[in-house]
Amino acid sequence: MVANLKILASVFKLRIGVFCALAAIAGALVTKNSLPETGPVLAVALAVLLSAAAAGAFNHYWERDLDPKMARTRNRPFVTGLFKAGPAWPIGLLALTAASVALAAYAANAWAALHVFLGAFVYGIVYTVWLKRRTAWNIVIGGLSGSFAVLAGAAVAVPGLSPESLVLALVLFLWTPPHFWSLATALKDDYAAAGVPMLPVVMSESGTNKIILANTVALVASSLLPVMFGAGWLYLGAALLGGGWFLHKSIQLVRHPGRKAAMGNFFASLIQLVLLLTAVMVEPLLAG
């Protein structure tokens, strides 16, 4: 039973879905003086989680021809034959996405539903189908899926687009490339074997690391912008602490390149995101 649950969690990429759901909750709480009701926020966060899970499972389904070529993915269920890649999968995942969009529309509004749909569409179709095998900048555009999670949650509090939600969406957009490129640097041999043109595969290690550093600088700078829109000391402290650590590890990656430094930078990115989202969620609750 536990093993089966672990397999399903892996196929539906639930860890990514949970981060997206947290981003949606943070988006709902980021707009100043617009604290929404708990029920709709949790419903939209669930919708984001389910739509992200559908997109993640579709990624497994679509890439079943690539996965055998990579050590990291060659034991995925669609590769081993544990799951049969029949038409029921895309039909079922489309139905799950539609249900998620409907849940967001029912619990909140059409804006939230639109952003839930766009988040799944960007990851499932734009990134997985259109861009991943064609361009090294695939993850840059694919990173919009996290931004749409923020906007879906924000729409619960303020239908439309508020300055605070747009800034937090920008932070998520800039966070994804250095996060993923750090992991791809550590796994570049896998991507090269599969013929996937990730940035570390098509560019020198030195060039890739400098781009990661430049992107991290832009990210850390953007993460301070919410202070201009009313974010308090808790958020500022989290942004400085998490951003400073991520920036330090990115500098170390440039100075001392290698797999260990790349993974260190990858984990630093996770620490930064957790600190930022936690601060965004906790601060308005402390303010009452």
Concise synopsis of the structure shown:
By secondary structure, the protein is an all-alpha fold. The protein has helices at 2-11, 14-30, 38-62, 77-80, 88-107, 110-131, 138-142, 144-157, 163-186, 188-194, 199-202, 205-223, 233-255, 259-286.
List keywords for this structure.
globular; 14 helices; mainly alpha; 288 residues
Instruction: Please provide the ordered H/E string of secondary-structure elements.
Output: HHHHHHHHHHHHHH
**What's the number of structural domains?**
1
Helicity, as a percent range? over 70%
Tell me the distance between the termini. 42 Å
**Radius of gyration of CA atoms, rounded to a whole number:** 19 Å
Report the portion of residues in β strands: under 5%
What does the main sheet amount to?
Answer: none
The overall strand count is 0
Molecular shape = globular
Structural class: mainly alpha
Q: What's the mean pLDDT score?
A: 95
